[in-house]
Amino acid sequence: MAQRSRLLAQLKRGLARFRKLFLSTPRKIADATTPHTNSMSVDSQPAVENKLMLGAATDNPLRIEFAIQPTDDRLLASYVDLKQSDPVDSIYLGDGQRADLEGLRPLTETHPNLLRIICVAIAFCDPPPVARISRVLRLLEDEVRQAIEAIANHLRCPVVCAGNIKFPGAFVSAMYRSCLQIMGAAHGDIACWCLQGAMSEPRHTRYALTYWAWHVSQATPSRQLKSALESFPFVLCTVTEHQLSNVIHWLKRFKDLIDAVDLTKQYEERLANLRLT
């Protein structure tokens, strides 16, 4: 019995030396190298849905290791897709500072049409003035101007150049990739304006003739856009085969969402007649 007790005691001392030698040393090293200013523990971090490792190759100028995605935010989820495979797209730069689209949420509470205004401004092929955005969205110019001022303050950089609205390129990329549905609706609004409103204003006729079909090809399908396409205010000689082909492709792509069989035939006939001229 005494011999067994001595063996147990020796074993305990050996285990103690093992812990001291191999387990305590890394802890001391970690304590010595960890800054004391960072006192946040894992338990104190904000709730996240997941942490996704970003790929090494990306065209975004930001290089971060992890993207933390918030979970329970219905307002944010209504206009930002948080389930993308590339979360870096929801990040942009403002005056050299890192920010993300979640920062737009408080602005939408005071400016309900903020995202529509931003997306229409971005969707135009050339930087639009406030007056053009207000015509497309049928909003007062003061409302558009106030929304533009709010986003400029948020980005901490000027967005108006010679009276036209132009956002930083990284912000534009983030909006296109994170708010794709709203961007599609913006292209639809502009396409409707090209087909129904712009042709009655001489200063906008050139833009409408040049870009109407491109905006259609980028648009989310809607009854309003289908109705605008039915009007077709252009003389056939002012459109191109490429434009008509784009519209026909768009109509066929969304044939299950909009009943446009007859409309598709009309555009195919226009294309055939144009090729004969």
3D architecture notes:
With 277 residues, the protein is mainly alpha-helical. Among the domains are: 77-178, Arc Repressor Mutant, subunit A (Orthogonal Bundle); 202-277, no CATH class. The protein contains 12 helices and 6 strands. It has helices at residues 2-33, 74-77, 105-110, 114-123, 130-137, 141-155, 169-178, 180-196, 202-217, 223-231, 241-253, 261-276; strands spanning 51-53, 66-68, 91-94, 97-100, 160-161, 164-165. A two-stranded antiparallel ribbon has the order 1-2. The protein has a two-stranded antiparallel sheet with strand order 3-4. The protein has a two-stranded antiparallel ribbon with strand order 5-6. The longest helix has 32 residues, at 2-33. Residues 18-99 have low confidence and may be disordered.
